[in-house]
Amino acid sequence: MANKRKAGSSLLATVTLLSTVLAGCSGGGDAGNAKSKGEAGGNSDSSGKEAVIRVWGPHDFMKGDESPGQQMVKIFNEKNKGKIRVEMKYMPWAEYNTAIQAAVTSNDLPDIFNLPQNIDFQQVVASKWIRPLDGLVSDAWKKQFYNGAFAEGVNVIGDKTYTWPIFGPQMNQLLYYNKDVLKNAGLDPENPPKTWDELRAMAKTVTEKGKGDVFGVVFAMAENGYASNTVTGFAAGINNLDSDGFNYKTGAYTYVSKAISDSVKFILDLKKDGSILPSSYNLKHPEAGALFGQGKAAFLFDGRWRMWLIKRDTPDAKYGMAALPTPTGQPMIMHHTLANNGGFMVSSKTKYPEAVGKFIEEGLASELFYERFMKSGVALAPIEKLNSDKSKYPYPEYEAFAKLHQEVLRLRPDPAVRNPEAVKVLVEIGGMGQPKIKPSFNEILQAIITGAEKDPDGALKQYNEKMSKGFKDGVEKIKQSGVKVEPGDFSFPNWDPAKDYTDQDYAALKK
């Protein structure tokens, strides 16, 4: 569900293959000319037949006839009947990555598609695999997005725009609380905990009164990435800098920080109290979410995607959402970036660039789609005007959801904006999470929390050393290939984590 594109280890090996294929695709396509493919009448081909646009993607909002994406396509097709017909195809990530590789090899890419995982976006642009959106969409369309949604080096290359953010602001972790469970335990269902001590005490009370049937907390500990998201989420409430295990102020990994260590110990305290539902260590997201919705636990830590899934799977559940508690009760701040290159883009080989532009502007990235997207409760839109319109909210909880994102999230600095060549380092190491390094942070945390790892601080220290070395080696390897990049490109000493990092802040570093 998340917009975060997970780096699959099997895909790391595809970069070289795709690089070779991309080079072969670079000829014969004029990526800058909207009329270059012989389009005579704008939307249909020279014979007067309707333009058939193929759209491929791996997102759930495209899955099934009742999904927001397919609903939008149906309305768009009816409106443009006889001129444009859109065929939208959903595939899960693993299948999708393979399908795109095959399409590149056969020189038969769909007109609009999502960038596969762990592929160098700049290399895709340089190889003319895709064409810019400039000339296809209007300036007004681009201006509808949040400030910061487009950035040079990320989704803008050489002043040409190649993609747009699919999702709006996203919180990877927040606190879900079951109001009925709290009420049955004699606690205030409208007053969620604000401190770690309050959370621990409330979880303990629920567990004691639950008598082995209802517990304070339910986890999805068997889910890949769950433990790491939870721990770094709690750590962010201590110094606002540890939300993803890397400190962009200092340019260093933080797995040995006191914030991470204290957050791990807090989870262990919940375990020591007996407040964690025992089956949690073997649960994945769907099971944990269902048990929470069924009233088997008072609290669940999860990302923004859990909201609509609770509504779907346990529609009668009465629940609320809040920011994760902090040690002192001081409101937490978490960080994100809006501009990304993981969204939809246009093939340079499309026969119908004008029709594609019309579909993007009036369908795929328009209010027609995002109103339905929001009504489904999946996430916030990347269009601020829509997120501010409460008439678009599908249910009362969504208002708290929108308010949380506004209050908690701030834009963090992005190394790719400071130096676009930094992306090559990220591709080399698989992102700042470096999935090639084993055991992973999540696996270490699982071992610590289940008791298999007896030296938590030692394991975290060793992991931090591996991550730091992997990052340093990655930068050095890219430098040796002739790319101008330095470790300092990943540090932003002028960053105030309580504020959005702005264009002016990037400019100040260059002085």
UniProtKB/TrEMBL annotation:
UniProt xrefs under InterPro entries: Bact_solute-bd_prot1 (IPR050490), SBP (IPR006059)
Signal peptide positions on this chain: 1-23
Residue numbers spanned by region Disordered: 29-48
Keyword terms of this UniProt record: Signal
Keyword Membrane part of the UniProt annotation: no
Organism superkingdom: Bacteria
Protein name: Sugar ABC transporter substrate-binding protein
Organism: Paenibacillus gyeongsangnamensis
